[in-house]
Amino acid sequence: MATTSTVKLFFSLTSVLLCAVNAAPSSKLPKDFVVCKLKDPALNECIKNGLQSSIPLLSKGVPNLGLLPLDPMRITTLDINQGTGSVKIKLSLKDVEILNFHTLVIDELNCDPKTYSLNLTLHTKEPIRVESLYTSKGSILIMPINGNGTLKIAYDDFKANIRMVFKPELKNGNTYLVIETFYWGFTTSKMHQSYTNLIGGNKALKDNVNLFLNENWEEVLNDFKPAITEALSEYFITIAHQFFIRIPLEKMFVV
């Protein structure tokens, strides 16, 4: 597995800023959000059920809270410059859409109010799909992958784990949570890839490259994973930050 990669990420920052500027700061939770009691012995189950029930709402986005849609996630550009391991490629993605996070299922949740930490494990009921325009130059394993066109990727049996640690900050008499640590990782049982217009549009070569990439998907994924993980981390953090800067702890929970 490659250990170094350079990722330049300029995902929807314009949208984020416009959302933050145009949406008046709100301190009211949508009426369908579940408010749990911090001292409830079944706190974890309450938060888990509340988050699960909010997935349809989060998938569409919540404008009055400045929350971007969860599905599809839109990333304006994503540049991957990978020069070690089996992947030696400069890959530029544009107009990236990531779909099917609306099928998220929370399997386990553990919240510790004393350490302000939250751990989740989850999966999706449908494959996570990535669609974008691409420009590439270089090679993956031994196959040249020069071209520009459309790229489609699908992750079967997508599973993820997330860990967040917050720092409480007092502002105007209310406690707000600031994200101090964010980690997430994912697994998949199979990654499918399809590039159009590879190697000057030569159909035979394009088909051979796509076949080769799909047969060797695990090695390809190992080298691409740091960039994919970082891109989605930025998106997740942005969504979470927009929520926590507007809703104080005292309104998220009954303390």
Tell me what you see in this structure.
With 255 residues, this protein is of the alpha+beta class. It has one domain: Super Roll (Bactericidal permeability-increasing protein, domain 1), CATH 3.15.10. It has 5 helices and 13 strands. Strand 5 and strand 6 form a beta hairpin. The longest helix is centred in the last third of the chain and has 28 residues. One of its GO terms (cellular component) is extracellular space. Keywords: Biological rhythms, Signal. Pfam families: JHBP (PF06585). This is Haemolymph juvenile hormone binding. Belongs to the TO family.
- Gyration radius, rounded: 20 Å
Terminal CA distance reads 46 Å
SS elements, strand count: 13
CATH architecture: Super Roll
Tally of DSSP helical segments: 5
CATH evolutionary superfamily: TULIP domain
Structural class of the helix and strand makeup?
Answer: alpha+beta
Largest sheet: 7 strands, antiparallel
What proportion strand? Answer: 35-45%
Average of the residue pLDDT scores: 83
Query: According to CATH, what is the class?
Result: Alpha Beta
- The helix-strand sequence is EHEHEEEEEEEEEEHHHE
Features:
alpha+beta; Bactericidal permeability-increasing protein, domain 1; seven-stranded antiparallel β-sheet; four-stranded antiparallel β-sheet; 5 helices; elongated; disordered N terminus
Task: Please outline the helices and strands.
Blueprint: E1 6-9, H1 13-22, E2 36-37, H2 43-60, E3 73-82, E4 87-99, E5 104-112, E6 117-124, E7 128-140, E8 143-144, E9 147-156, E10 159-171, E11 174-187, E12 190-195, H3 203-215, H4 217-244, H5 249-252, E13 253-254
Parallel strand pairs: 2-13
Antiparallel strand pairs: 1-3, 3-4, 4-7, 5-6, 6-10, 7-8, 7-9, 9-12, 10-11
